[in-house]
């Protein structure tokens, strides 16, 4: 077979998600005369807009989906090609695509994201959320649903339980309390009233372009590797079932088996019925606590697996424990001239005491930006230093309608339970938790409009001894910003 003509680029970025697009934009700033290629499986790419700095390490921003031309006209030496990387030849520094094209690179950045883990028995009754198309499928299915089961306890499951109305939700989680990856039992209790409340039906107008019909039909051809959605995945969608909202939490459980109605006939006695007129359900789920619930469908929200197969096939990349491409402090994988950023990678460097990886928008953007500097510096022979954002974990989000800011070891991560907690709690208003070790702040959870993020960020970063303030640190009558800013 005839070899395809090799098209030459200085930089190639694989993936049009936040990590990939940020990396390409910053490569253009650093090295505008170099030819950069963004190779992406989907027709639309992500763009970060409305960036507002909150603290030194934390910005809030919105993410939109754009036509690739937007990036190409902003960064003229960046080309975007919609095609899929099928094979990577690390020796010859070549990327082969599904459409049969071949591109050479001097530096390559892999930003192929992650794919949702799906319950072992996936079948037609199991859905998951990842991209625009899966969100639309969810919308279509929910409108005829009376009851769904949501399995998982992370950000996506939490958002979904909050956003979906007019349906009974069985929320099955492995942990002892809801949203355990992000908040402790106290904060979970703070959020509880919002969990039960039926939401007002607000307007469902989306300012993004991602939910239009023509885009979704384009996307369906490549649905397996669409870019991940973010915090506003539900905006523009009507997520209403056809009954009354009710939440039943099943804690410390996993899914044991999924049954078709026929299979469950002999188990009639064992089925947990929430009312006497339930009738038959399209699917039944047995949990490890022995309960069997019927429902219309099951949502699998049990985490993600890094998308590495396109690069690992035939190559020897080292992987992290969670299956991501292992990278060093210069974002380099173990293969020459190949970098990685975003959900696909696993940091293998000695991370700062108050930072850790979580596969989130914020980190995809930070890593994409830093990876561009690393790629450019390795070509230009310039020395660079690790970006300051890797000094402190910080994340801003919304849970159950409340503003949530997480800083440092906010859940006592890695502290082996050897920490104290300072708490300030005003029902319905604010929840402030500080994780303290020997009088020094290690992390914080700020829920509500607390305005403390900057002060607490400083206190975690500078590790000031706060023992003398004791509980007064959170005394509402003392303006601690005056002391520490
Ligand atoms: P992605 O955005 O997944 O982009 C990967 C890109 O690679 C895509 O463009 C894909 O088409 C492309 N690609 C993959 N394979 C190939 C290939 N072989 N060839 C060419 N291109 C390829 N994070 C938050 O911070 N807050 C939230 O509230 C939040 N909510 C979320 C809700 C949902 C429903 C989901 C799914 C995720 C959510 N996340 C949230 C996580 C966040 O979306 C991700 O961490 C982030 O988008 C990762 O960005 P990325 O660029 O690494 O990967």
UniProtKB/TrEMBL annotation:
Keyword Flavoprotein: yes
GO molecular function: oxidoreductase activity
Domain FAD/NAD(P)-binding: from-to ranges: 10-163, 266-368
Keywords for the protein's UniProt record, in alphabetical order: FAD, Flavoprotein
Superkingdom: Eukaryota
Named cofactor requirement(s): FAD
Pfam short name (any one): Pyr_redox_2
Family, per entry: Belongs to the class-I pyridine nucleotide-disulfide oxidoreductase family. PYROXD1 subfamily.
The protein's name in its UniProt record: Pyridine nucleotide-disulfide oxidoreductase domain-containing protein 1
């Amino acid at each position: 077979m005839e070899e395809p003509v090799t098209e030459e680029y200085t930089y190639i970025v694989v993936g049009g998600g936040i990590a990939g697009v940020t990396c390409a934009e910053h490569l253009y700033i650093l090295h505008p005369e170099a030819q950069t290629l963004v190779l992406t499986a989907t027709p639309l790419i992500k763009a970060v807009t409305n960036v507002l700095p909150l603290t030194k390490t934390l910005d809030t921003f919105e993410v939109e989906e754009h036509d690739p031309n937007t990036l190409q006209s902003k960064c003229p030496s960046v080309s975007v090609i919609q095609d899929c990387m099928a094979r990577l030849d690390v020796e010859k520094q070549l990327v082969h695509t599904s459409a049969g094209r071949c591109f050479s690179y001097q530096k390559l950045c892999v930003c192929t994201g992650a794919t949702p883990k799906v319950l072992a028995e996936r079948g037609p009754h199991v859905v998951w959320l990842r991209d625009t198309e899966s969100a639309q499928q969810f919308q279509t299915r929910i409108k005829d649903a009376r009851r769904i089961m949501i399995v998982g306890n992370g950000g996506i499951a939490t958002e979904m339980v909050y956003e979906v109305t007019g349906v009974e939700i069985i929320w099955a989680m492995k942990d002892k309390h809801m949203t355990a990856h992000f908040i402790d039992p106290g904060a979970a209790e703070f959020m509880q009233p919002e969990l039960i409340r039926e939401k007002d039906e607000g307007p469902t107008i989306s300012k993004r372009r991602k939910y239009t019909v023509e885009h979704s039909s384009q996307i369906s051809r490549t649905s397996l590797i669409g870019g991940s959605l973010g915090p506003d995945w539900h905006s523009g969608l009507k997520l209403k079932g056809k009954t009354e909202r009710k939440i039943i939490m099943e804690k410390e459980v996993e899914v044991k088996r999924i049954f078709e109605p026929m299979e469950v006939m002999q188990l009639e006695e064992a089925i947990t019925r929430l009312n006497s007129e339930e009738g038959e359900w399209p699917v039944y789920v047995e949990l490890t606590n022995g309960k069997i619930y019927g429902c219309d469908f099951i949502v699998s929200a049990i985490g993600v697996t890094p998308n590495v197969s396109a690069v690992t096939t035939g190559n020897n990349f080292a992987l992290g424990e969670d299956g991501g491409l292992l990278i060093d402090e210069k974002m380099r994988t173990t293969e020459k001239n190949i970098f990685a950023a975003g959900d696909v990678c696993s940091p293998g460097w000695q991370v700062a005491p108050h930072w850790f990886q979580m596969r989130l928008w914020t980190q995809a953007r930070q890593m994409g930006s830093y990876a561009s500097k690393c790629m450019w510096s390795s070509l230009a022979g310039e020395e660079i230093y690790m970006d300051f954002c890797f000094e402190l974990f910080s994340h801003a989000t919304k849970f159950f309608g409340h503003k949530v800011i997480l800083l440092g070891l906010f859940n006592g991560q890695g502290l082996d339970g050897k920490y104290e907690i300072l708490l300030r709690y005003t029902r319905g208003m604010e929840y402030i938790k500080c994780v303290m070790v020997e009088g020094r702040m290690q992390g914080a959870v700020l829920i509500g409009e607390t305005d403390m993020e900057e002060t607490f960020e400083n206190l975690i970063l500078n590790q000031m001894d706060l023992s003398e303030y004791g509980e007064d640190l959170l005394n509402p009558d003392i303006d601690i910003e005056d002391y520490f800013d």
